[in-house]
Amino acid sequence: MDVIYARGEATAAEIAEAIPDAPSYSAVRALLRILEEKGALKHREDGPRYVFMPVEPHEKASRSALTNVLHTFFNGSLADAVAALVDTKDGQLSNDELKRLETIINQARKS
User: Fold this and answer.
1) Contact between 58 and 7 (Cβ < 8 Å)
2) CA quadruple 59, 43, 34, 5: dihedral positive or negative?
3) Which pTM value belongs to this model?
């Protein structure tokens, strides 16, 4: 999906070429078929090739994926998800990131 969002559209061969240590070409095609069946992708035919493109804009798809993660792993709790990210040893936040989080929290309190 990252390759498709970055390019706007791509063939299976282009996707396989862009992924470091990519799986086989047939595995990439199978994954694209699954993503299309799930409604994340659509395709158009360009001669013998299928050119895949996202169904939703990146921001909408990322929010939907994040919502699924929240419900699946954190019982819908945004606070628990943020705590899991921040409380890890490698969750070192820069001062800029801390300020950004503080601003977001303050804005949430106001609304």
Assistant:
1) no
2) negative
3) 0.69
